[in-house]
Amino acid sequence: MTVLPAEVSIREVCLRDGLQLEDPLPTAAKLELLAAIVATGVREIEATAFVSPTKVPALADAAELSEHLRAFDTVEFSALVASPNGARRALAAGFGSIEYVVSAADAHSRANVGRSTTEATEAIADIVAIAHDAGAAVEVIIATAWDCPFDGPTNPQRSVDIAAAATELGADRIAIADTIGTATPVRVTELVDRVRPVIADLPLGAHFHNTRGAGLACAYAAVAAGVTRLDASVGGLGGCPFAPGATGNIATEDLVYLLRDCGVRTGVDLPATIAAAAVAQRLVGHELPSALLRAGDRLTSTA
Amino acid sequence: MTVLPAEVSIREVCLRDGLQLEDPLPTAAKLELLAAIVATGVREIEATAFVSPTKVPALADAAELSEHLRAFDTVEFSALVASPNGARRALAAGFGSIEYVVSAADAHSRANVGRSTTEATEAIADIVAIAHDAGAAVEVIIATAWDCPFDGPTNPQRSVDIAAAATELGADRIAIADTIGTATPVRVTELVDRVRPVIADLPLGAHFHNTRGAGLACAYAAVAAGVTRLDASVGGLGGCPFAPGATGNIATEDLVYLLRDCGVRTGVDLPATIAAAAVAQRLVGHELPSALLRAGDRLTSTA
Fold it and tell me: Pyruvate carboxyltransferase domain location, by residue (chains A, B) (predicted)?
């Protein structure tokens, strides 16, 4: 019998993963979207990334955006980084929580950050030292945890090794990420079952894309296997602009619908999330893949 | 631990559920689509429905289409019916297998066929007698098994009662259908767990729509709960034309991808299914919601 956790934390990644491949939005537009997202009741928001502004122009306003976040004091904001230098910039901008990405697949690691998986794993020690010195928390996100666009299937032991190293090196949280949207439920369960024993009592999160339609099935399998933290993006924003129609992150509203119906608390309001997805769709100016944005909630009572 | 069956039978419903709300396709176009579907290796195809041609003009060519099916002798064809008269027409057209639909929700039953659930359930006896006299098999599909568009949530006991009655009255197979695409995994597991004990050793199938993004998650939960038969439609065809972008049946190629990756045999070829989805998309002339049709298969090896 499947036993689900009573509560799952959703981290809203629309402003980072959702927007990173879109045409750059003005900071003011991001703040409009942010206000709609905060109104959903979500308690964690990945607000931006401190990475190369030439590589990711959509997030080049990271420092400027950060100045506006203090106005929203019900939310824990975090920023994604790919290097110690990025971590320093995020901390200087006031973030109390950072995500550091390590690609489990060497080819993806080299393509993404110009370093091997081993080198990127070793850098966890620096990132943790820098963050902890500033009183900030570090989550290590293991990218291409299931598959790599260049190398094909990732040996699960590589993700397990990174998770163990991150735990040893002082990370505060671990997450496994299906970077290219190829994971499926059985492989999710298998990897969660292998990662959990090596991360002591650190919280374990998961990050799925719906590129092959299985995003919510993977999220459900992850939660059933004991994952209590999930990333999602309102509207399902995050598709690659070079693959029109290919969906991006799992849509927050679709995830909230599923979890609510499964009796799992998220603290996130469904109508407000659908409203935020509509704001995202209007601001980016193209149709988003969210199911709930079109279909709406189900009739839950006839009263 | 989740134990999945070694094999799941997929029934392709593109030609019936997929097309029933589309502008009518010429019979010749349906035969082109049928040839592409047969090439996928799928062993069961719901080819059409014998229902009111004025209510469902897209399937008004049921008898004409049926004459062409004998050419495909690797496949078991079936037809959907809603009344004893429809069953007689299907049998006269040569079908050896029929699906008879009973709505678990009274309001949907009355709107759909002008009869209460009780009346529709009682008619199972006639349908079975008519079919078995002709040497044909009857599957009873329990529609609105989770939710009704008018009544809201369906009391699960109503679906259990229909399943028990159908078994008692001689049905050869039972299926539970998420007619409006609102089911979620825990409710799927719960209903499967309640229906299985009352249907003796009859095969149990499930039918999901992806309207709220959870179609594959429901299919996975159903299979994990012991369902060994799933309906699907190439391209995810089957959305309501009055709700643009709302997705229809779960896409066969997305389901095949997920099941293959979970180690479950289907006998259905993935590239051929993606090709059939492309044929369906071309013939109906609008974009279909399938994920694999856009994203393609994952890189499964680097060899």
Answer: 8-274
Domain interval for residue A74: 9-292
Does residue A1 lie in a domain region? no
CA angle at residue B250 from A233 to B211, to 5 degrees?
Answer: 55
| B235 CB within 8 Å of a chain A CB | no
B300 lies in some domain: no
ipTM exceeding cut-off 0.90 for this assembly: yes
What residues contact A265, with CB distance under 8 A and at least 6 apart?
Answer: A6, A7, A8, A259
Average pLDDT of the segment spanning B160-166: 98
C-alpha distance from B97 to closest chain A C-alpha (Å): 31
B232 touches chain A (CB under 8 A): no
B298 contacts A254? CB cut-off 8 A? no
Give the confidence band of B192 by pLDDT, cuts at 50, 70, 90.
very high
Chain segment B73-131, per-residue pLDDT in tens: 989 999 999 999 999 999 999 999 999 999 999 999 999 899 999 999 999 999 999 99
* CA A66 distance to own-chain centroid: 18
Judged by CB atoms within 8 Å, which residues 164-193 of A form the interface with B? Answer: 180-182, 184-187, 189
Tally of domains within chain B:
1
Reply yes or no on whether A240 is catalytic: yes
CATH number of the domain residue B175 falls in: 3.20.20.70
